[in-house]
Amino acid sequence: EAFIGAIEHSNGALNAYVETTFDKARAQAKASDELLAKGEGRALEGAPLGIKDLYCTEGVRTTACSKILGNFVPTYESTVTANLWQGGAVMLGKLNMDEFAMGSSNETSHWGPVVNPWKAKDSNQALTPGGSSGGSAAAVAADLCLAATASDTGGSIRQPAAFTGTVGIKPTYGRASRFGMVAFASSLDQAGPITKTVEDAAIMLNVMCSHDVKDSTSLDIEVPDFTQFIGKSVKGLRIGIPDEYRLDGIPAEIDALWEQGIAWLKDAGAEIVRITLPHTKYALPCYYIVAPAEASSNLARYDGMRFGYRDPEATSLTDTYELSRSEGFGKEVKRRIMIGTYVLSAGFYDAYYVKALKVRRKIADDFTEAFKSCDVILTPATPSSAFALGDEKKAADPVSMYLNDVFTVTTNLAGLPGLSVPAGLDQHGLPLGLQVIGKALDEGTVLTIASVLE
Ligand code: GLN
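A: This is the predicted complex of the input protein with glutamine.
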């Protein structure tokens, strides 16, 4: 009831929830109360969660914040959310996001932007909570849920976490099932939580991750109890600091925060090693070829025929496709479809798409090589703190928006786990995050390191 009250009070200003499910929440909470009264209770018994609107929820509208799915009510449940309800969690509602998870500011949502609950101490300007999981991050930061699901294709868990002083982890590709998650770029998409603390992230991961025969890329591997890694000693662990992440033009306070993180880990007994990830500078161009290519293919299913928005004026099959897609998709989604179909077209396939796949392999190989001399990698999570909503420069120049993902896309391309942990405030009093990147399937060490930095 406290969370419901908080949502009723603050959601008008923040726009974090696009749909609330209070009746369902009350019914689930009642069942949890009854179990707890009997001395029983599962891992997440009674925990009130918000669900990013790209997880299909049976009988509850799921739009991926696109007009084209504006009337879509799934007849089935995503595996991740099914696991959560099975674990005793309570659903408060569906959370705002960039349309089809394409964006870094939550401004591409059909339902309008989310407002970051944080403000600079010297300005009243409304700030972005980041994206695409902006609703998830804002809801957790503003106490409109205890924790939230999110998803990360190129940084959409970690960047919003960094902008809102929350914890976000993208596990290894394949740890959590993608079944029932609206697809953006299937070889990069991964589910994960946004939480208040590193321990909460471990608790959420325990329940969200599972092997699932309904997702052919889901890993058939045991899910450890991630909470056992919290607060473990970091003595002797080797922390890699990549030279290539020291970028020109990054604010000095981001570098200072990074140095601070390094110092904390050193004090705790870790060993700091310099590493090199030589293909880092190709990561953004590579990502912005691979992700739109896969997106253009995934979004071909929205044809106005089977589900979602259909233009009422259309009189022929071609008109139905053209008008429904023209009106149903927003500007950024159309841009991605155009880039994607271009790089996949016969004349350019080898020059762009195949080349990007080769670069992707090189980026993954860089990590394999680097992890021979370190156990985890520490970097800043984002190149800035939360920026203003309605930033005209970013709106006019999509590449300047894409640059936000400079530190996060590499882990998606390589399939590795990455976490953002709040580590300090900038000169305006806004949160900044540090990113911990781990070896494949080694979320445990990532959580250990993050629990020291927290
Ligand atoms: N900002 C990136 C993009 O727009 C990443 C999005 C994501 O991780 N879903 O593609």
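The radius of gyration is 21 Å. The chain has 15 helices and eleven strands.
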